[in-house]
Amino acid sequence: MALPKRYFEDYVALFPPGFQPFLAAKLAYKKTLESEKRLKIPPRIWLAFLTPPVPEAEEYVPQKCKRVWQLKTAMLKILPHPKEFLAVRDPLHRSSEAVTLALLETLYDLNEQKVLLDEKTYHVWLDVANHFGLWKLRYMLEDAIFKTFDPENFALFESVVQKQMFIDQHLILSIRGILKDALKYAGIKDFSIENRIKNIYGVYNKVAVKNKSINDIYDIHGFRILTSSEKDCRKVVEVLHRLWRHFPERYKDYIAKPKENGYQSVHTVLNCLEGKLIEFQVRTYEMDHIAASGPANHAEYKKAAGVTASS
User: Fold this and answer.
1) What is the mean pLDDT of each run of 10 residues along the chain (311 residues)?
2) Are 259 and 133 in contact (CB under 8 A)?
3) DSSP codes of every residue in the chain
4) Strand 277-284, strand 191-197: pairing
């Protein structure tokens, strides 16, 4: 069922005036995260995110939303203990909601320049995000940690990525145009081409830690092609390999053999225009939602929550 237009605003309005400045900031951050259309977080998790983290807030939570309060209190208990979740093998485990909420809260705090955990614990949360297939939140958290604990290097590598993107913008437009025409000619009717930018920490890790040149990072930016079916994914890969030379050793088929956390996609690196090495990711729209938000959250999101904030 579709949510009412002011669903989350109505929920926030249930709390006393003293909470409102804090909740307004969280609502604004929620909208910032959701500007990334691929991030699909279930309504129940967003409601818990917007619930004040103090005992007196419980009396203002509607009866129908009591599970939201339980989720909030569970998250507050687990926040300092991320290692507990690395032993959970099934990404559809019920603890996935608490993990997602913990990552959202951690991102918000770092965005507000509140350091509540030691750096080592933040890095364990990265491992947990990866374990549960929460790729989008993992990359965002990597950059937030990098910016918080090493601001000088973050600023340096952020400028490097932005400069490289500016230099390559004509190539990106040309490749997109060629690819769009080729996919249409191949009879693929429903597809989307997105330019994917590597996170700042990922670039830093390869340049400073793995001692690579910026020119050797083939996935500093790349393309993600989304289709409506696995069959069309295969067609897209065929088109890509006809257009430009690919590297078999860098070809990874996670559709045929998904990762343990549920991630599915085909990755292939191509020698494109002007000899530029670029990585392409090909997957269905549903696989993309799972890649962005995790298998459990995607399944819950599709159900559409049955709680009502105004109850």
Assistant:
1) 84 94 96 86 94 92 91 92 84 82 96 93 94 91 96 92 84 93 96 88 82 65 93 97 95 94 93 89 94 84 58 41
2) yes
3) -PPPTTHHHHHHTTS-GGGHHHHHHHHHHHHHHHTSTT----HHHHHHHTS-SSGGGGGGS-GGGHHHHHHHHHHHHHTT-GGGGGG---TTSTTHHHHHHHHHHHHHHHHTT---S-HHHHHHHHHHHHHTT-HHHHHHHHHHHHHHH-HHHHHHHHHHHHHHHHHTHHHHHHHHHHHHHHHHHTT--SEEEEEEEPPHHHHHIIIIIS---GGG-TTSEEEEEEESSHHHHHHHHHHHHHHSEE-GGG-EETTTS--TT----EEEEEE-GGG-EEEEEEEEHHHHHHHHH-HHHHHHHHH-----TT-
4) unpaired
221-227 and 277-284 strand pairing: parallel
Which of 103, 87, 128 has the alpha carbon at shortest distance from 45?
A: 103
Domain 152-291, CATH homologous superfamily name and number: Beta Polymerase, domain 2 (3.30.460.10)
User: pTM higher than 0.85 for the full model?
Assistant: yes
> 63-94 burial by CB neighbour count: b if 16+ within 10 A, else e?
eebeebbebbbbbeebbeebeebeebeebbee
Range(s) for CATH 3.30.460.10 in the chain? 152-291
